[in-house]
Amino acid sequence: MPAPSPVARCVDASRVFGAGPAAVVAVHGTTCSITDRARVAVIGDSGSGKSTLLHLLAGLERPTTGTVDWPALDETERTFGIGVIFQSPSLVGPLTVAENTALAAQLAGASDPDDRAGDALDLLGLSDLADRLPEEISGGQAQRVAAARVLAQRPHLILADEPTGQLDHDTGQHLMDVLVQVADRTGAALLVSTHDPAVAQRLVEHWHIRAGRLTLSNPEADR
User: What pTM did the predictor assign?
Assistant: First the structure.
């Protein structure tokens, strides 16, 4: 039986910002793939290229050279089948927490976006914030609402960029519990960028990135 197609794949993909002497290579020629139900940690310090790699895999950045594709996803699945938890604030200011959480599922045409949003907020212990606006909650709460929005979307691929960066240890571990639980339940692939070893150890595959250069390793070798 042939191996399943990767959910997302980079082949010698690079991303350069700027031109000439001022050019910055954020990601050097990188080849990697995310398989069905994968659990991947991308480990690196701030400025190492983690976010750029994640944006390439999400289709939010075009590679300067090489290719990025999504062999297992058709065009519709490409649009709504990839969910991104951004490191920076991403909530829509005029919408309540509940409305923000339901937004992606609603745009994807789900028949029950409000129910999905309620379930996701409940999983993350955020139900009491449902009627608040983003300006009325903390940065850490906003990060968890952004995660709830992706969970309500129920994508085939979850890409989370430092999702625990603004959270204390226990809250961060709970968020990881929920991300892994939902990915297991829905069959989604999960990739998390992090600089935190406690987050990385929750995932099976470890990719290391330094100065835009990615290396793949066996987590057993990291211990």
Answer: 0.93
Could you tell me if 26 and 15 are in contact, meaning their C-beta atoms sit under 8 angstroms apart?
A: yes
CA 130, distance to chain mean position in Å, is 23
Report yes or no: 91 and 146 within 8 Å, Cβ to Cβ.
Answer: yes
Span 45-79, pLDDT tens digits: 999 999 999 999 999 999 999 999 999 998 878 88
Q: Within the chain, where are the H helices?
A: 50-58, 75-80, 97-107, 113-123, 139-153, 169-186, 197-200
Q: How confident is the model at residue 80 (pLDDT cuts 50, 70, 90)?
A: confident
CA angle 86, 91, 95 (to 5 degrees): 160
Strand partners, 34: 8
Q: For the chain, which residues make up each domain, given as ranges? A: 36-61+73-206
Cα distances from 172 to residues 41, 140, 195, 198, 216, in angstroms, run: 15, 10, 13, 10, 24
Q: Which amino acid is at 9?
A: R
Q: Rounded CA gap, 38 and 190, in Å?
A: 6
Residue 139's nearest CA partner among 178, 180, 167, 177 is 167
204: its two tokens: 């099976």
DSSP E strand boundaries for the chain: 8-17, 24-34, 39-43, 65-69, 82-85, 157-161, 189-194, 205-210, 213-217
CB atoms inside a 10 Å sphere around CB 109:
9
Give me the sheet containing 24-34, strands edge to edge.
Answer: 24-34, 8-17, 65-69
The top-level CATH class assigned to 36-61+73-206 is alpha beta
Q: Where are the beta strands (DSSP E) in 35-92?
A: 39-43, 65-69, 82-85
